Each structure stands twice: as C-alpha cells, then as structure tokens.
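Recap from last week: sequence in, structure out.
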Amino acid sequence: MPAKGKHRRPKFLRLPRSIAVAGTGGAALALPLMGAVCAHAAAPAAAVPSAAQKIATVAVSAGTAVEKTYVVKAGDTLAKIADRQHVSGGWKKLYADNRAVVGADPAAIRPGLKLTIAAADATRSSVSTATPTSVGPAVEAAAKAPKAAAAAYTLPVEGATIGTGYKVPGSMWSSGYHTGVDFVVPTGTTVRSVAAGTVVSAGWGGAYGNQVVIQHADGRYSQYAHLSALSVSAGQSVTAGQRIGLSGATGNVTGPHLHFEIRTTPDYGSDLDPVAYLRAHGVVVG
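Predicted structure tokens:
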C-alpha cells in the first residue's frame, strides 16, 4: 500500500507519431497520425478529407489539364468559338494561338479545321463545371458563379460573303458611293441585330424596301434593308443576336441580299464603315 498522504503519479504511455505527406502540386500537407497504443485499441474510423485537402485536390486537377482541340463547325467564327470556350483574351488570343493553322485572314476558318484551345482556358472551363462538396462557401460560390455573358456584338447574318463593299463608287447611288455593305444571302435568311438596342423604325424605306433601324448604347445606329419580312416594331428593345426579320429583295435591288449600314444618326447620309465598326467590337467579318 502507498504511504499515507502520498499518491502515485500515473505513468503515461508515449504515443508514436508518423507523418503522412499529401502532395498538392508542389506544396505538402503534414498530417500527424496517432499510432495504436495497445492491442485493445479500436480500429480508426475512415479518414474524412478536410476542406483544405479538397481544395488541394481541385488545385491538382486544374494543374494537370492539357490543351484542348476544337473542330470548327459550319457557321463558326473565331469570336463565337472564343466566347463558347471561355478563351481568355477573346478571338484575338485564339487567332494568335492558331495563326499557323488559320492563315493570314482570321475570317477564313472553315468546317473541319482543328484549333487548339490553350491549357489554362481548357482548365478554367472544366473546373467551373465541377462543384466541390463541402469545401467552404468561397469555393462553392465560385463554382456556382454564372458563365460569362454572351458576346456583345455579332454578325447580322451567318455564313455570308460580302458582295458590294463600303464606299464602292457608282452612279446608281445618289451619294455617289455605296453607303453600306451587302451580305449575299438568299431570301428568307434570318437577320439578327448586331447588338442590343432599341428599334427606331421598322417598315417601308423607299429604295431600301422593308428596313429596320436600331439605336445602340454607344449612340450608333444599325440599318438592315431589303427585308422580305419584319419581326420587330418601332420602340421595341432587342438583344444582340435577336432575329429582327428575314432577308429578301424588296426595294431597289438586282437580287436578294442584306444591305447593312452603321450610322451616326438614324437617317441616310450619316454612314460609317460597317465592317470596321464590327471588327472594332470583336466580330470577325468575312
């Protein structure tokens, strides 16, 4: 028996420790693991990854992404592809990365052409669609963030070639030159607003036949002439790419096409170079 008034100090077992190192793409997480203390110790429960480990897993996955190949489809433009594939730097970056394949003219892409999407962009696209489980509100909020908004400007018609260009001289025009560009398309082709705006007029325009004029946020006006049908009316708000009518051959024409202008006012005689305007807003024009 122990001496009166004295107590034995209990002996504590020293617990061995081992260190597990988890790779995190260059960094390491040191995780101390408690060793078994005796033969009667209960088996350890299944390890539950921490929030930090899950974030590290996402980072590792992102770091191992490879370049992506995109096959051009009918109606594609570099601007559309760059927008859909979330290319950082837009169509200009996409063109710079694929200049050897595309050639000197960025508008000369054709169906079947194989374009390379940079690894960083391919990674961002894939990671944004996967939501980690219980990794904290910041990561979840980033994963749930909406996709990038659609391109602000687009072509008025798809897959069309330009017939008569801007400022081509000729006695057939009262100004002495062509005030817009003609997109060669058959009657019934969908015509779209090149940008968001408000319809200023929609109806008969004399030599222009059925026409639509739209005012945009930058103060410019776009005009779409010789339409066979109208889909909008004056005062209506439209979005970029929204159908506003169908191409045709109404008014003073020699065949079906879309006459397209950019103006500083809604009226004839205030024209600007429409191709330069579209290209300045990231649209690839053939």
